[in-house]
Each structure stands twice: as C-alpha cells, then as structure tokens.
Amino acid sequence: MSQPEPIPPKTTEAAEPYSDVLIVGAGPSGLFAGFYVGLRGLSVRLIDPLPEPGGQLSALYPEKYIYDVAGFPKVRAKDLVDRLVEQLAPFQPAYALGERAETLEEADGLFRVTTSQGRAYRARAVIVTAGVGAFQPRGLEAPGIREFEGRGVAYAVRRVQEYAGRRVLIVGGGDSAVDWALGLKDVAQVTLIHRRAQFRAHAATVQQLLRAAEAQELEVLTPYEVREVTGDTQVRRAVIFHNQTGEERTLEVDAVLVLTGYVTRLGPLANWGLELERNKIKVNSRMETSRPGVFAAGDIVTYPGKLPLIALGFGEAAIAANHAAVYAHPELKVNPGHSSEKPPQGAPSGS
C-alpha cells in the first residue's frame, strides 16, 4: 500500500497543540478512525470525557461479550477495546482524556476545539465519533435507590467476580438486563424483575432467559417494579410489587443492578452548527457533516439505512478518516490502497 511521507505538524501556538486530525470520542469508532488516520501518515488526537479509551464498552459493560464483530466468534468488550488501543498505538496518538469537547471554531485555516478543562486543540479536520453523546443511567425514583448508590446499587457491571456468591436483583427488560441475568446466573443468585411481561431484548436471549428460569437457574418476575430498597452500610433488602395486583414481596439482596437504559443527549455538540435529525448528526456517503472539514461516524450519525452496530461503525470510521485525511492534506488520495501491501510503520504524534 502506498503511504505518504510523514507530514510534520504545522506551527501553531505552543499552548494549543496541533494534530492533522482531531477525533472527538475515543470509543470503538473513534479508535479505529484514529488507526486509519495514522495509516495515512498523519498525526491524530482523541478527546473524550471518560478517563480511559473505549466509550460505553469501557464505562458500561467491560465484562460483556460481543458476538457480531467480524473475525471474533465472541469477544469481551474490554478485550476489544484493548485490541483497538494496541492497533492504534504504533501511530503515537495523543489523547486528551477526562476532557469534554465544548466549542468548535475556525481560524487561520484550522479548527479549534476547546474543552471542559480549559484547554484548546487545533487541527485541519475533525471527526466526531461521540457514540450516543453524553449519557447517564435512567434511574429509579424508588426510596433508597440513590441513598445506596455505590453501596450495592449500581448501573453497570464492572467486574463479574464482584457479584460471585451474592444475591442480585436485576431491574430491567432490555438487552443489558437480560444479558447480565444470563451472565451472572452461574456465579450469583439472580432475580430479574421487569415492569412488563414483554421484554425489549433480542428474541433469542429472551428465550434463553425463560429457559434458564424454567430450569430454576434464576428467577424472573413480571410485571414487577421496585417499591423500596433498604439496608445499613450496604443494601440488604428490596421491596418489589406486582404493578397490576399491588402484591408486595420482600427480597433479601446484596446488590441491585438498575439496568433500565440511559438518557442521552448531544450536549455541547448540539451547538457546533451541524445539521441534526432526532439528536443525531446527519452525514452523507463520505461521512461528511453539513460543516466542511467536519466528519462523523458511529452511533452518533444518521443516514438512510443506518444501523447502530459496532461493526458498521468501523466501516464508517474508515470512510470518515480517509476523507478527513484528504481534507487535511489535499495532495493525498482518498483510497489508501491495501494495508497488506505495506504493514503500518507508525506516524508522527501531534505536538
């Protein structure tokens, strides 16, 4: 594969580091976009409000298996992130972690992005791969839930072994709730409750759940909701109720996992002058937004036929990165050629 000679960073203010391409979001699409930018011989910087790369994969379900990534019959989320970071590493990317991108301006032919930490970064092109945007757990209003957050009440599973031998109440009916009920049943005593008889998870995993309940490997109760959680230094009990009959049950529990989804919003990105549709960034087939020089990929984008899959996000990231590379340096060609013709040798980092 033909690859240009490394392009040195352009001179900018020392206090505002430069990279050829700036990527907003260090989730799987952002990391793979960074790899492709590096493959083109350009410098790249990734900005993300989380303290580590990986986006939702690292923050929400690092222990969860993913089954629809090409080449992996199954891969743990945290392992996929590790491989993506390893793949990007030879190109010496610059990271700005723990910083939320706030504003986007243009001056002297460069984009300037300021962050929540009061820093500013400059680049010739920008790729937005911010996933679903800013997200926070959709909590419950039941008494005791907020009081016991971090003391038995949680909104994600960080490590499976934390729940080994424990009595775990899972609240929810979507993919995360069903997947984790199945994922924890072999190490913990699991009860799953959902406010409706119908689940929103994939049909195949719902059938697995119901078969596991029939085999008494876990308990499934519908339509039940949480009335209250109580305890001392840790959560100890959960009062649940049948939302049609009002019948109450008290469960002895060691942990309550509230897996009822997340509230998402674009946050400051909504003010970047990009055309939006239902809180998503509209892009064309080149992953261009309505603002020249700003590209986007992954769950944050929309276009006809879009599917929210990690596997598709990788393809979108490659398209966005190659077009961003050409925008940053028009002497390049969009088609990078085949990587098998010339293995990656690394690229310069930003200042």
TrEMBL record:
FAD binds at residues 29, 48, 56, 61, 101, 135, 299, 340. It is an enzyme of class 1 (oxidoreductase). Its cofactor is FAD. GO terms for molecular function: ferredoxin-NADP+ reductase activity; flavin adenine dinucleotide binding; NADP binding. It catalyses: 2 reduced [2Fe-2S]-[ferredoxin] + NADP(+) + H(+) = 2 oxidized [2Fe-2S]-[ferredoxin] + NADPH. Its EC number is 1.18.1.2. Keywords: FAD, Flavoprotein, NADP, Oxidoreductase. SUPFAM superfamilies: FAD/NAD(P)-binding domain. Residues 20-304 form the FAD/NAD(P)-binding domain. Gene3D superfamilies: FAD/NAD(P)-binding domain. It comes from the Bacteria. Binds 1 FAD per subunit. HAMAP family: FENR2. Belongs to the ferredoxin--NADP reductase type 2 family. Homodimer. This is Ferredoxin--NADP reductase.
